[in-house]
Write a structure and sequence with these properties.
Elements lengths: L1 E2 L4 H16 L17 E2 L11 E2 H4 L3 H7 L8 H14 L10 E2 L3 H31 L8 H10 L5 H6 L4 H14 L6 E4 L2 E4 L4 H13 L7 H14 L3 H14 L4 H13 L3 H14 L4 H13 L3 H14 L13
Parallel strand pairs: 1-2
Antiparallel strand pairs: 3-4, 5-6
GO molecular function: oxidoreductase activity
Organism: Streptomyces laurentii
Pfam families: DSBA (PF01323), TPR_19 (PF14559)
């Protein structure tokens, strides 16, 4: 489940998912030797939230904040969403007192939730998540404060959580997992993902149950971790996030520095993020290794053009066009 702890629908979705799993006995049976398990992944509906929390009522007067928070309920204003969700929350037993009081960054809360899963599995993660959600929406506490998170962790039986937070635990994991969510197309909170199937929104338990039953029955082919990472990085580039692509590629570039597919994707990402010197270095090596790679020639030529080295670019562009005529039409296509 990809969700943000400052999204009220995430709390409602948590309750509805639990109800769906209780109602559908088939979901509790073992599949392929593994029990059904719910794992919570980070999503940010308001990535611009300040490190130091501010009163939510005051923040909502800012139209920029209103727009950012619509990631929790696309198609509605924050005021409309608040009125609707308050009624539903009461029906789900989350009231009677309900409503966040703070616009708070959820980054450290996501780190704590991730650490809970890493240290104690799904059960501990669920307890910590419940504590964070209750603190934010029912107790109206500031979940960006270290002291608040420390108390939540202790109450959930995760005493070492505060120490791990102080040591920077799960910092890289959260930042990378946010990119993974973006790569697979998660755009709202909550979104339930099973294999390659996704269900966006806090649907009724019976809808969730049917989705889980159907998705769980589909055959799953696990990709090698490095192949999955490469595909996710490429997806980020396709979505216009070359820097995110490079972030996911980092581990592959260290482990497989000579792998051509990794280096080509890195060169593309450097080109599209205007890191032209790095793109040129990679592409010159790739062309030297494989002179008949038309696309590498095209991209090197375009890189040299953007650097103002037109004379150096021309031979590469001519060779690329000779090998692939499409690259020579009307200046050639823009490199993808």
């Amino acid at each position: 489940m990809w969700a943000d702890v400052v999204c009220a629908w995430a709390y409602i979705g948590k309750r509805r998912l639990a109800a769906a799993l209780e109602e559908a006995a088939i979901l509790l049976e073992k599949r392929d030797g593994e029990p059904v398990e719910v794992v919570w992944r980070p999503f940010r509906i308001d990535p611009t939230a300040p490190a130091e929390a501010e009163p939510l009522e005051e923040a909502l007067r800012d139209p920029v904040t209103d727009t950012a928070l619509q990631g929790c309920a696309p198609g509605t204003t924050v005021a409309e969403n608040h009125a609707r969700v308050s009624e539903i929350a009461a029906a789900e037993g989350l009231g009677p007192r309900w409503g966040a009081a703070w616009r708070a960054s959820s980054h450290d809360a996501h780190r704590l939730i991730a650490l809970a899963y890493e240290q104690g599995g799904a059960a501990l993660q669920d307890a910590v998540l419940e504590g964070v959600l209750r603190a934010h929406f029912v107790e109206q506490r500031d979940i960006s404060r270290t002291e608040t998170l420390r108390e939540i962790a202790s109450t959930a039986g995760f005493a070492e959580g505060a120490r791990l937070l102080d040591e920077g635990g799960a910092e890289e994991y959260v930042r990378e997992t946010l990119l993974r969510g973006k790569a697979i197309g998660v755009t709202t909170s909550p979104t339930l993902v099973i294999g390659g199937e996704a269900l966006a929104g806090a649907h009724a338990p019976e809808v969730i149950a049917r989705f889980v039953a159907r998705a769980a029955a589909e055959p799953r082919r696990e990709l090698p971790a490095e192949v999955e990472r490469l595909r996710l990085a490429e997806a980020l580039l396709d979505k216009g996030d070359p820097l995110g692509c490079l972030t996911l590629l980092g581990a592959l570039m260290e482990e497989y520095p000579e792998e051509r597919s990794v280096r080509m994707l890195a060169a593309r990402a450097h080109f599209h993020s205007a890191q032209l010197s790095r793109a040129r270095g990679e592409l010159e090596t790739l062309v030297a290794q494989n002179p008949d790679d038309a696309y590498a020639r095209l991209l090197l030529g375009r890189t040299l053009e953007r650097q103002g080295a037109k004379e150096e670019a021309t031979p590469h562009l001519r060779i690329a066009a000779a090998m692939n005529p499409e690259y020579g039409t009307a200046g050639g296509p823009a490199p993808a």
